[in-house]
Specification:
Elements lengths: L11 H10 L1 E4 L9 H20 L12 H11 L3 H5 L21 H7 L2 H11 L3 E12 L18 E5 L14 E6 L10 E3 L34 E3 L6 E5 L3 E4 L8 E10 L12 E4 L11 H17 L19
Antiparallel strand pairs: 1-7, 2-9, 2-10, 3-8, 4-7, 4-9, 5-6, 5-8
Bound molecules: 2-oxoglutaric acid.
2-oxoglutaric acid binds next to strand 4, strand 8 and strand 9.
């Protein structure tokens, strides 16, 4: 689709729809050509990691010559922690951190998408022009579910995502933050390959009980029985499409039942000056009319800020919890 056919901003009807339902799907937003830098950056990263893991004896092959999605699927099948090296956040761990796998990726193509003008135009329509990019963000690269090792299939960065509200992993400091989730499809998202689904209007019901996941504290879920009578709406979007969520909206992602990679980023934004809910991790000012000097334009500085956060956590200089993991559980319901 050519650039001029893509609707540039949110209209009144879309805004009303979001206010009523707590989500909004936009089938096309980022032109697919603008996804080439991230595809190339990740292909290079995968190649480097394939060489390294093979040299270290952690995988049986480099899987040279396979297409990107197949190669990633084969490597993550043998070395499940690989997904952390591709994520755009440090791992959500409140303890038991292993420095070897306490990793992330913060390359310039990621920064380019965090600041993509079309994304920021949409965000501005909802929260105004003083926009901070929240560090509450994830890269989700999901191989076909059938190829996943059972111990990692419950991890939502590579497997299906259970019902949840985005507020659940934020520290209480962000209770009043107007956080907007922008979920971006790097590959087309379909019902078959694991698109999102949302419960319309659920953002108006308040905080819900989220049951703890005994193996993965970062994966609490709203139990299905508390959602009876609420019909979910599947949200397929094209490559470069986005889905917006209010932080109280209940949503999930279906499992990837296709034979190919399902790849997305979830990005979050809030008005500058409000708390992100994850103070250990660095956000930045992505757009401003009032304070142009505060806008971060240097991808290297953004990357260094994550490096400093990692050092602070590993050295023990940062002593707080990295994410909320207990607040929304209720044993009587779970
Ligand atoms: O892509 C996914 O699996 C889940 C994304 C999600 O739940 C979110 O962006 O809040």
């Amino acid at each position: 689709m050519s650039e001029e056919n893509i609707p540039p901003v949110i209209d009144a009807e879309q805004k009303e729809f979001f206010e009523e339902n707590g989500f909004l799907a936009i089938d096309q937003l980022v032109p697919p050509d603008d996804l080439l830098p991230i595809e190339n950056e990740y292909a290079d990263l995968l190649d480097r990691l394939a060489h390294r893991l093979f040299a270290e004896g952690k995988v049986s092959s480099r899987y040279d010559g396979l297409a990107f999605g197949d190669r990633y699927g084969r490597l993550v099948g043998e070395f499940p922690d690989l997904h952390r090296f591709f994520n755009i956040s440090l791992p959500l761990l409140n303890g038991g951190i292993d420095p070897d796998t306490f990793r992330m990726h913060s390359g310039p193509a990621v920064f380019g998408l965090l600041c993509h003008p079309r994304i920021l135009d949409v965000v501005e329509a909802f929260i105004g022009p003083e926009i901070s990019s929240s560090p509450v963000q994830q890269m989700r690269m999901k191989p076909p579910e059938k190829d996943l090792r059972s111990e990692v299939s419950g991890h939502s960065n590579i497997g299906a995502t259970t019902w949840h509200q985005d507020i659940v992993a934020l520290l209480p400091e962000a209770d009043d933050t107007a956080q907007l989730t922008v979920w971006l499809a790097i590959t087309e998202a379909t019902i078959e390959n694991g698109c999102l689904a949302s419960i319309p209007g659920s953002h108006r019901d308040g905080g819900r009980v989220h049951c703890a996941n005994a193996k993965l504290a970062s994966e609490p879920h709203v139990p299905e029985h508390t959602l009876q009578g609420r019909d979910p709406v599947p949200l397929p979007v094209g490559k470069g499409g986005v889905v917006l969520f209010h932080k109280m909206n209940v949503h999930r992602a279906y499992p990837n039942r296709s034979n190919g990679l399902r790849w997305s980023m979830d990005l979050r934004y809030h008005p500058t000056g409000q708390a992100s809910g994850r103070p250990a991790f660095p956000g930045f000012v992505a757009r401003s009319r009032a304070n142009l000097d505060e806008v971060l334009r240097d991808p290297s500085e953004w990357s260094r800020s994550w490096g400093r956060a990692r050092d602070d956590i590993l050295s023990g200089r940062y002593r707080g919890r990295l994410f909320e993991d207990t607040r929304w559980a209720d044993v009587a319901v779970c």
